[in-house]
Specification:
Elements lengths: L8 E7 L12 H14 L3 E8 L2 E7 L6 H19 L13 E4 L5 H9 L1 H5 L4 H11 L12
Antiparallel strand pairs: 1-3, 1-4, 2-3
């Protein structure tokens, strides 16, 4: 085969430090635009973004040239610096260490996108911790419950 062909869609989930409700109405649209620009600058495609004041869900296609962990490390680091520099009221903004990254098949993109759009409705029934544990279990990701939130 003469080329490299990929379709790497990811559902990325990460929270603010200590799940503090930093992502308010003033920050949210600009932060989401920042993420979209970063993903596009890296040659990716942003399909959907959403969340609540304490966490973010990103559905995106990424290129295979960078590991997901490296991409997220840079996205979180750069966006945290941008937030603290740009918003006087968010000088202590930080992201929690770690993240969830789940592969999404093309046939499931609309289902995952819809769930991201409905985050507020979804969280009326389930908190972030329960939601995240459900994602881990649905994708059969092993974890130690004693250390998942530390």
């Amino acid at each position: 085969m003469a080329g490299t062909f990929t379709c790497l869609n990811y559902h990325l989930v990460f929270s603010t430090k200590d799940r503090r409700p930093f992502i308010d109405a003033a920050l949210q649209p600009r932060l989401y635009e920042y993420f979209g620009g970063t993903i596009r600058n890296e040659g990716g495609v942003l399909y959907q973004i959403g969340g609540l004041p304490d966490h973010v869900h990103v559905l995106a296609r990424l290129r295979p040239v960078q590991a997901v962990s490296d991409f997220l490390r840079d996205l979180k680091s750069h966006s945290s610096g941008w937030v603290t520099d740009s918003f006087e009221t968010h000088r202590t903004f930080q992201w929690q260490e770690g993240f969830g990254a789940f592969s999404v098949s093309k046939s499931d993109l609309s289902r995952v996108s819809d769930s991201i759009v409905r985050q507020e409705e979804h969280h009326a029934r389930r908190d972030f911790k329960s939601e995240f544990l459900q994602l881990l279990q649905a994708h059969e990701v092993e974890y130690d419950p004693r250390h998942i939130w530390t």
